Amino acid sequence: MAQAAELHRPATLTVRPSGAALAADIEGIDLNEELQPAQVAALRDAWAQHKVLRFRGQQGLTLDGLIRFSRNFGPLDQRPKASMAMSREHDALPPEITVISNVKVGGKPLGALGDGEAVWHTDMTYNEIPPKGACLYSVEVPPAGGNTHFADMYTAYETLPEAMKKRIQGLRCVHDASRNSAGELRLGYEDVTDPRKTRGAIQPIVSTHAVTGRPCLLLGRRRNAYIVGLELEESEQLLDALWAHATRPELTWTQEWKVGDVMMWDNTCTMHKRDAFDPGSRRLMYRTQIAGTVAL
Ligand code: OGA
Ligand code: MN
Questions:
Q1: Which residue among 39, 74, 187, 274 is buried most deeply as judged by most CB within 10 Å?
Q2: If you measure from the C-alpha of residue 233 to the centroid of ligand 1, how many angstroms do you get, rounded to a whole number?
């Protein structure tokens, strides 16, 4: 009987892989609705397999809906303290919501990251336990630019030459906490002029994914990174080589935003970057962050 019921259960969602190294579209669900346990399980599997998921057509999603949906994947972080005075509209939002936007209200920013390029990074790896992932929901998108690129750090590791895999085995790197991906200095930090003095968590260059158990490259951010114990010059050369390898186009996939898209990325096996866009146009996105539970 149970088996017959299984067979007759309607399809709960469709996973459509991008065909690139990572990313899949999820179709057939409304993120405002409470998900069934089978749907959550299917999404967890798809997330582990494709690393980045996209849900299009979610224009009706409320902020409470975004928070509720995100909690299916773990407890949420509260938004980080902004590096500047934000608009009142920003400060009134639920604490789980971070705004990513260039929009200003009354001369003060509504969100973070402005309109410039946000260079390749993994979120908050300068903390001992970085977030597990994030959901980014687009409400306004510029007519051009502002695309977000994702890179697959499993494949980045797997495609390294064997000699390089041996060379980086057991090495650890300092992840700079002083500046965000838009290059802004964070509150309470001073500029780093010597990477050997960088402040931030020390992470393994090769980490093991908490769910899949597979090895992946963990690079964080290039700026001010330093491989502990090496001569500075040697560290710079090794990092440059790893970064060039890990950001090759064949490891990446690009999100061209439409209003109502929700992107959900696994922060522990991917990197992302955002292109600049015309400061005269508006981009408004709401983000939740799924808290990390383990060191990488
Ligand atoms: C982020 C981020 C990129 C974007 O929210 O962590 O890097 O496309 N956003 O806005
Ligand atoms: Mn980011």
A1: 274
A2: 31
For the stretch 137-194, pLDDT in tens is: 999 999 999 999 999 999 999 999 999 999 999 999 999 999 888 888 888 888 889 9
Name the CATH superfamily for 15-290. Answer: Clavaminate synthase-like (3.60.130.10)
Q: What are phi and psi of 233, to 5 degrees?
A: -60, -40
Q: Which atom of ligand 1 is nearest to the CA of 255?
A: 8
pTM, whole model, 2 decimals?
Answer: 0.94
Element (H, E) at 2: helix 2-8
Extents of the domains making up the chain: 15-290
Ligand closest to 276 (CA) is 1
CB contact at 8 A, 69 and 137: no
**Which of 285, 288, 289 to mutate to test ligand 1, by most ligand atoms within 8 A of the CB atom?**
285
Distance, C-alpha 198 to centroid of its chain: 22
Taking residue 134's Cβ as centre, other Cβ atoms within 10 Å add up to 22
